[in-house]
Input
Amino acid sequence: MDDLVRRATERAEPAGFAFSCDPAVGRLLTVLAAGLPPRARVLEIGTGTGVGTAWLVSGLTPRTDVTVTTIEYDSARAELARQGDWPEFVEFRTEDALTALPSLGTYDLIFADARAGKRFRLDLTLCALGPGGP
Output
């Protein structure tokens, strides 16, 4: 397990956050992220404590030509996630994803890991997925 993933998982436990990205899903995210084209843009909806973010980053590192934007509605969880040792290409946003999505542009990969954008208003998420994006 990648060190970023391990530390993010360790932050989740004492916070009582039980909805972290499952390791099998995380490994898939790593593979998908590793295959992204140059200058790819990645969006995660539902940062939680950063476990999914860490899996994505582990597939992108050591690249620096990419951007990862991760959105978390809950400010306490967002603050926990920010405590990681993240590369400069990771941007944390604390806001309502459904409000933000229409103005964010398109992405090459979207990991919708929250009700907003996955169970509610999936149409907004799909509109933010660029051509050929998984």
